[in-house]
Amino acid sequence: MHVPPPGSYDLTWRERVRLRNGRSATLRLLVPEDRELYLQAFALLSPHARYQRFFEPKGQLTQAEVHYLVDVDQIHHFSIVAVVGRKHPHGVGLARCVEIPGQPNVAEPAVTVLDAWQGQGLGRVLLRRMIEAARARGVERFHVDVLADNTPMLNLMDEVGVQLLPAREHGVVTLDLPLPPPAPPRPPRRQRTPLERLLRLAAKGWLRVLERKQA
Ligand SMILES: CC(C)(COP(=O)(O)OP(=O)(O)OC[C@H]1O[C@@H](n2cnc3c(N)ncnc32)[C@H](O)[C@@H]1OP(=O)(O)O)[C@@H](O)C(=O)NCCC(=O)NCCS
């Protein structure tokens, strides 16, 4: 994985998305300063959602886990967070992408949306933006284990065209998703000269030549 091209899902990227409930959320990369925001969101996550995400009951996170989850390098490990509220911003969803050790350009995705915000289209937009952000970093495929009874995640991954790999473990489904390379950036447009702009308007029939009345 490599540094994304400037402006392509880097630290300057912000996107406002509208959810089914009419609320808006801002998407951006998670940064180490989001530690409190992350912990507050984790505290609101139901035991069921935590189990689906971590494959084990997760009461509290250890210091080491918080460090791993929040102090990310933005290249081999990054997360997109969905934030609501201007005065008191809080996180309502997160998509994480981690390069798998020993497998360059293969990454593990994970998406989590707070229970109260599920079913609003946030998981879908987070997954889609994470795919784009991963492609911008050179990720060529996603590989992820999902609990076999996690229908929401399986349906969500099905939308983006995952393949099911042979089961390795009872109760777990292994998914594989090849990611196409990102489209090459368009060359910057050359500024047209005033004459070129006039000729273009004339060619489109948008220019009317008025005759000057003789005095
Ligand atoms: C999986 C998860 C991220 C989905 O997030 P979400 O914001 O609720 O999903 P969306 O509203 O964007 O729904 C997108 C699609 O996912 C599927 N989906 C979502 N919730 C579903 C449900 N309860 N039952 C079946 N399918 C569901 C549907 O195909 C849905 O499309 P539709 O709304 O057009 O029917 C969310 O359920 C979650 O955080 N679960 C707990 C953590 C987890 O399991 N993470 C995955 C581990 S890798």
Question: Please, could you describe this protein's structure?
Answer:
With about 220 residues, this protein is an alpha+beta fold. It has one domain (about 15-180): Aminopeptidase (3-Layer(aba) Sandwich), CATH 3.40.630.30. The protein contains six helices and eight strands, in the order ββαααβββαβαββα. It has an eight-stranded mixed β-sheet with strand order 1-2-3-4-5-6-8-7, with helices on both faces. The model has no long low-confidence stretch (mean pLDDT about 90). Coenzyme A binds near residues 52, 111, 120 and 146.
Considering the chains and any ligands shown, give keywords for the structure.
215 residues; alpha+beta; Aminopeptidase; 6 helices; 8 strands; 28% helix; binds coenzyme A
Task: Give a brief outline of the structure.
The protein is of the alpha+beta class. It has helices spanning 35-44, 47-54, 63-70, 122-136, 151-159, 194-203; strands at residues 15-18, 24-29, 77-84, 90-99, 106-113, 141-147, 163-165, 172-178. Bound molecules: coenzyme A.
What is the element layout, followed by pairings?
Layout: E1 15-18, E2 24-29, H1 35-44, H2 47-54, H3 63-70, E3 77-84, E4 90-99, E5 106-113, H4 122-136, E6 141-147, H5 151-159, E7 163-165, E8 172-178, H6 194-203
Parallel strand pairs: 5-6
Antiparallel strand pairs: 1-2, 2-3, 3-4, 4-5, 6-8, 7-8
Bound molecules: coenzyme A (COA).
Coenzyme A binds at residues 49, 52-53, 110-113, 118-124, 146, 150-153, 155-156.
